[in-house]
Write a structure and sequence with these properties.
With 341 residues, the chain is of the alpha/beta class. The protein is built from eight helices and 17 strands.
């Protein structure tokens, strides 16, 4: 049994809680002890958990009483802290914190969960800087060492969608270059309407529901970290588009040798049926983004738009950027944290 807490209760926090509730493996192995909803009214936590514009209405009937969230199994302590306070995790018997706030992505910040809050370790639900290890489930999870790793990044939704595709190709051919382009649902990092908000990307201050917004993607940095031999030959970008959930990545590979359409598609079909069958799926159906709402795979290859052209290979793959990613966070908790050393 592992005692965990959620630091943050936004899109990924709520999605992860729903995944945990639906995953039979978590019962008796994962205990959610606390949720820090941040500097807001904790009494609203039950409402926002029950009703969700993307995921729909939760079958449970959560309610808040005297600072505790009930109706989802064991009672959960609700905290409303803006910053990490002294022993906030230790006094609530928290072993590992799952940071889904989007704020604690640098080592110095994440370390506060341990040195100030009193947790044993922290999982960051985003690409991080200075973390002990970055784990992409199904790809390099064997690199996690519970005895020494205390600050762990699980990458991003796009990272988890792209890296399995790279891993598949890496095992079949020599990669000369990769170009990543992701069409991504808008998120809370953007503005609903034009706003003079500060940030490194001014385009994200433009109206998210009215524009196609070019942006960067943190997936490139993680690819370079996991595949250092590709540092000089991988690049990418993203387009934020007016859909609430459901994204698709379009990855172009330059290979050392030519590959046929049939061979190229077979690589992804074989992996979806074999070693990556819980991570990667493949489909020939004429699907659109809304069809992947609630999909638990990291990435689903659309074989209709996956083909070879000489030494170039193209693969397009869908993913639920909230629920699919949260499913991998849940996998990590159950498979690597709930198992005592």
């Amino acid at each position: 049994m592992i005692n965990i807490a959620l630091n943050g209760f936004g899109r990924i926090g709520k999605s992860l809680l729903r995944v945990l509730l639906n995953d039979e493996r978590s019962k008796g192995h994962v205990a959610l002890k606390a949720i820090n909803v941040g500097p807001t009214d904790g009494n609203m936590a039950a409402y926002f958990l029950k009703y969700d514009s993307v995921m729909g209405m939760l079958s449970n009937d959560p309610y808040v009483k005297e600072g505790m969230l009930y109706g989802i199994g064991e009672p959960v302590k609700l905290l409303s802290e803006k910053e990490i306070t002294r022993d906030m995790w230790k006094k609530n018997d928290i072993e590992w914190v799952i940071d889904v706030s989007g704020r604690y992505t640098d080592r110095e910040q994440a370390q506060e969960h341990i040195t100030i809050g009193g947790a044993e370790g922290v999982v960051i639900s985003a690409p991080a800087h200075g973390d002990d290890v970055t784990i992409i489930m199904g790809i390099n999870e064997d690199q996690f060492d519970r005895k020494k790793h205390r600050i762990v990044s699980l990458g991003s939704c796009t990272t988890n969608a792209v890296i399995p595709l790279i891993d598949i190709v890496e095992k079949k051919s020599t990669i000369a270059a990769i170009m990543i382009s992701t069409t991504h649902a808008y998120t809370n990092s953007q503005s609903l309407l034009d706003s003079m908000r500060t940030g490194h990307d001014v385009r994200r201050s433009r109206a998210a529901a009215l524009n196609i917004i070019p942006s960067d993607t943190g997936a490139v940095a993680v690819v370079k970290r996991l595949y250092p031999h590709l540092v000089s030959c991988v690049a990418g970008s993203a387009l934020r588009v007016p859909v609430p959930v459901g994204s698709i990545t379009d990855v172009i590979f330059e290979l050392s040798t030519a590959v046929s359409d049939q061979e190229w598609r077979s690589w992804f079909e074989e992996s979806a049926q074999g070693r990556l069958k819980s991570i990667v799926a493949a489909t020939t159906l004429p699907l659109v983004s809304s069809d992947f709402q609630g999909n638990t795979y990291s990435t689903t290859v659309d074989l209709s738009f996956t083909y070879g052209a000489g030494k170039l290979g193209r693969v397009m793959a869908w993913y639920d950027n909230e629920y699919g990613y949260s499913s991998r966070v849940c996998d990590f908790i159950i498979q690597h944290l709930a198992q005592k050393i």
